[in-house]
Amino acid sequence: MDSTLKWKPPIDETERKVTNTITALSSLARAARAMSGAYRATSFPALNVEMHLLPVEQQIWKHNIDTISRVGIAEVFARRGRKMSPRQTITKRLLDRQDATNEEHEHMPPFVTPPWWQGPRIHIAEGAEKAEKEHQRCLEQNAGAAHIYADGSGINGQIGAAAVCTTTQQTSKSHMGNDTTSTVYAGELQGIVLALEMAQADKQNGNHRSKVFIHTDNQAAIRSSAKPRGKSGAYLLKIIADKTQALREQGLDVELRWVPAHIGIQGNEAADAAAKEATGWRQYRQTGARADKPRALFKLRSTVKTWSHKQSHRKWQTDWEAETRGRTSFHLTPKPTKKVLQAHEGLSKRQSALLVQMRTEKIGLQDFLFSRRVPGIANANCPCREGRQTVSHIPLRCRKYRQLRRQELGALPGRHNLRVILNERKAAAKAIRFIEQTKILGQYGIESQPRQS
């Protein structure tokens, strides 16, 4: 009778999906154990930390956010009487966790300009000293041209852009939002946009100049402006290309030149200070008014990717602190970090597996084997009768290996602190060598056999 009920097939389908998901996650755990050489009793959270593997749930969340950022934000308001689609649900979670701003996410076209389009002329000298000399020569030989310095800066989580024209003594600034919207690279591009706008305004004011030189200290921005491609920040490159073409049609040639930063070039220093002030920063007081935002301002895909990376690792840290399993690994590594992998450098696969077992305390010693009710293990005590046979007891206190301990770990700094030993690469290698020479683990069942003639 139950099989004829209408609500039973959907429930069965849901249970099937849940079962498949659990099976898939279990297979990931088996793969991680196989790679690390850890015991089956090792908890998955501890294994993630020991191998620096982002937890599966955080990987899925990060993948969803990055995908939504790539394909575009969906309309989050469902029609009346209809549920949200999976894409709308993920979009809503993204917008809820991000700071509420009015900026739309950028759209990255496959190309910015036609293949035959010629970008502005660029000049990048080899080395700071040569660039400084060529910059001074450029000023002397092109006194009748317009010289504009562009810069972008990030300070206190805010991004600013500015352009300073030393020819007309004018300054233009833009606030590019916080670092979840723009990057310093985007600020550099916006600085070039402001410089082109200043050149356009100078042309409209009746000044007939033969050329405009835009000086900036960012080589990547110069090269991207000359050969724009469809990557993060493409909307700014499109604006630069359009304004460059407009000036070219009016008979004003544009040249982008690299100047080294922070070596005393007056225009560059002024542009750098103006870009910082655009964020509200002030040198002699805490804060001030921010510059206006440009009319075209979009969240960069690269900033969304950086944000999702930080958020997923922050959630991993929070979950690891609240986790009840793997507390032995937590005492050694309270914060998930890639530095945990440094202790494995130079170790063989067998030694690396032994290090993971020592750090998780899931290892073939009496204490662990007795807790797992392994047949033939009557108690957890060490044969020295001075306590349980644990990871800390053998290398630190067991009197049976006193001479070997003095030989292998005698001159080791922090040799009485297991956390120091297992977190430092050279100390961990010596501890592994010590455990191997005790042959307390049976050396993986390998026994020497007499040679037969």
UniProtKB/TrEMBL annotation:
GO terms for molecular function: nucleic acid binding; RNA-DNA hybrid ribonuclease activity. GO terms for biological process: DNA replication, removal of RNA primer. Residues 142-280 form the RNase H type-1 domain. InterPro entries: RNase_H, RNaseH-like_sf, RNaseH_domain, RNaseH_sf. Belongs to the RNase H family. This is Zinc knuckle. It comes from Colletotrichum incanum (Soybean anthracnose fungus).
